[in-house]
Amino acid sequence: MRLLIQRVKSGSVSVAGRVVAEIGHGVVILVGVGHGDGEEQAAWLAEKAANLRIFADADGKTNLSLLDVGGAALVVSQFTLYADLRKGRRPSFTDAALPDVAEPLVQRFADLLADHGVPVQVGVFGAEMLVEIHNDGPVTMWVER
Fold first, then answer.
1. Which CATH number does the domain housing residue 56 bear?
2. Is 52 a domain residue?
3. Which of these, 107, 124, 139, lies nearest to 25 by C-alpha position?
4. What is the total count of domains within the chain?
5. DSSP labels for 41-57?
6. Positions marked active-site
7. How far is CA 13 from the centre of its chain?
8. pTM check: above 0.90
């Protein structure tokens, strides 16, 4: 599994012109699922995301986690994180898990993140989504397991 974590002032997901999920201060997490990913990867990444120290403390140092600052997470499925761009100009997505495997694993990741005490909103798997991200910093991190 791959996560692209962005520290945000706010984030939202709209489908067909209707907001289906939104958060204020926290993180937007784009989640890609690859072949062979499962519960172990989802659990490890949920713990990592909840406790990653990417928020500033009173001294301006990045010492605080999502849990420390009471932030929320917006989880969005993103199979394109598994794009292979090594040949030609058209991306290949053969390394991405099929939807019947990826969808429950993205939801499981979101549930495990919530189990850590993070308020979680989720995009709509497989939908054409408009994702609004108001990146704070900007701070963007790639995590893979």
1. 3.50.80.10
2. yes
3. 139
4. 1
5. HHHHHHHHHHH---EE-
6. 78-80
7. 12
8. yes
